[in-house]
Design a protein that fits this description.
single chain, mainly beta, 16-stranded antiparallel β-barrel, two-stranded antiparallel sheet, 5 helices, about 45% strand, globular
Length: about 475
């Protein structure tokens, strides 16, 4: 059976039921391969991009198992316990080297400023421990704990806990339904076209990042907790509805020293519940699959410390309405794998709190992010990706300040514009399915509003070009 084939009724119903209890692995985690007895290629084109079968595995709660279980039932023959004899643990590491197009100013000694080193070694850049697999019948998880070299600390990373079940309807169509508890909007999504699992799948943490990003595009990652209910009908129509609350890590109440309640020393706290929604349609035929969809969220944030000083979490707020479209096309052949993916996110901002505090120059702003990329691999061993990215939006000297206007360093904008665009290319070699060596290059044609002298101090957009070499493996 090809992993891209739609599950059929009739003689294949038993196989369909087993296959549909698979759920996609947002990261390529070997725990899932051990649990299912299937190689990584069943769920991934090349990790971490998912196949149609991988998407069904994720939707079904990461619970398909081929391992010997420790089981318990009560007097009514109801399942009370089901534990795999092999723990569902994996490790993942990234070792990297980053080279910037032009060295940064070194202001460690203001009396005699110099230049930084041109390159940065991450050894490791990131080291993660995963629990990935079934916890109990119909209940599974992909939970990640990560050490990052930029912070030098260990913290919670992308996490998705799922309860899921499946029904075969009278017309022989399938209905997968479930609940996801997660800490990053879109981390529970089934497609690689949305922010949490979109390209680039690995990125340098020693680069120069632009000023602007929408809230749904990783800004709130690991800073929130959300719960959503979803349904996936006949491996075609997907609907999801949920909401998020702030779940600050390392934040304490100033009076009690406890984890909460949150007070004005916290920044950008969600007011009430931030709704999240998702709808998508997938069609699979032969070796092909095509998905088109929409997703979005409405975040009302009380700025607190983000205004520059502790501010009570009450009164005026800032509202961010994010509406996005996405698509994904895949061809999965015996030797050749090809995919094209993209997303467009439009964010409308109503900045009542920031404008009243003179942190933003405008009461309303907007931001639009667009990304599209294409990937090709031969025999899952050699391949690469080429992508284009763009962020455009309202000019706002408060949100995107110039040097000397409360901003420091090279992440500034002389004209108050967030506009940034460029191209991103990557070539990769996989000697084994769980080991990837990639060389990535990012070229900026515009950065924070201009191509030349964007900061008013002589730095050009291309000076932030980044060469990134990474060895990425999981076991």
């Amino acid at each position: 059976m090809r992993c891209h084939a739609r599950f059929q009724s009739g003689a294949g119903t038993t196989l369909a039921v087993l296959a549909m209890t698979l759920s996609p692995v947002a990261q390529a985690v070997p725990s899932f391969a051990r649990q299912t007895g299937m190689a990584c290629a069943a769920c991934h084109t090349v990790f971490p991009e998912l196949t149609p079968f991988g998407r069904m595995f994720k939707a079904n709660g990461y619970t398909l198992s081929n391992l010997q279980q420790v089981e318990a039932v009560n007097s009514k023959r109801e399942e009370m316990l089901e534990l795999a004899k092999t723990p569902a643990l994996s490790i993942m590491a990234q070792v990297s080297y980053t080279e910037l197009g032009k060295r940064l100013p070194d202001k460690s000694n203001p009396a005699a400023p110099g230049l930084t080193q041109s390159g940065t070694t991450g050894f490791p850049q990131q080291l993660s421990l995963f629990y990935a697999g079934e916890i109990a019948p119909h209940f599974g998880a992909m939970a990640q704990l990560t050490y990052a070299n930029d912070s030098g600390t260990i913290g919670i990373d992308n996490t998705d806990l799922r309860f899921a079940d499946m029904e075969i309807l009278p017309d022989k169509k399938s209905l997968v339904y479930g609940i996801s508890l997660n800490n990053n909007p879109t981390v529970d999504d089934l497609w690689n076209s949305t922010p949490a699992w979109g390209f680039p799948y690995a990125a340098s943490n020693a680069n120069v990042s632009p000023l602007a990003a929408t809230e749904i595009d990783g800004t709130l990652a690991q800073d929130v907790a959300g719960i959503s209910a979803y349904a996936f009908w006949n491996q075609s129509i997907y609907l999801e509805l949920g909401g998020y609350r702030s779940a600050k890590q390392g934040q304490t109440n100033e009076l009690t020293g406890a984890a909460g309640p949150l007070d004005g020393t916290a920044s950008n706290v969600i007011e009430g519940l931030a709704p999240y929604w998702r709808a998508a349609y997938e069609r699979d035929w032969n070796a092909n699959s095509l998905e088109i969809g929409v997703y979005g969220a409405d975040f009302k944030l009380l700025p607190g410390q983000a205004l520059g000083t502790p501010t009570p979490l009450q009164g005026a707020d800032n509202r961010f309405d994010d509406v996005a479209e996405d698509f994904q096309y895949q061809y999965i052949g015996e030797d050749n794998i090809f995919s094209v993916e993209g997303t467009r996110i439009h964010e409308s901002m109503r900045l009542a709190a920031s404008f009243a505090a003179a942190v933003s120059a405008n009461p309303t702003d907007d931001l639009t992010t667009e990304r599209v990329w294409g990937t090709y691999y031969y025999q899952r061993r050699f391949g690469g990706t080429l992508g284009w990215f763009s962020t455009t939006g309202s000019s706002d000297a408060g949100l995107y300040p110039a040097p000397g206007a409360g901003a420091a360093g090279v992440v500034t904008s002389a004209n108050g514009s967030p506009d940034t665009n460029g191209i991103l290319g990557e070539v990769s070699y996989l000697p084994w399915l769980n080991v990837k060596l990639s060389l990535q290059y990012t070229h900026y044609t515009k950065f924070n509003g201009a191509g030349a002298d964007y900061d008013g101090l002589g730095r050009n957009a291309s000076d932030n070009d980044t060469l990134y070499l990474v060895l990425w493996f999981a076991y």
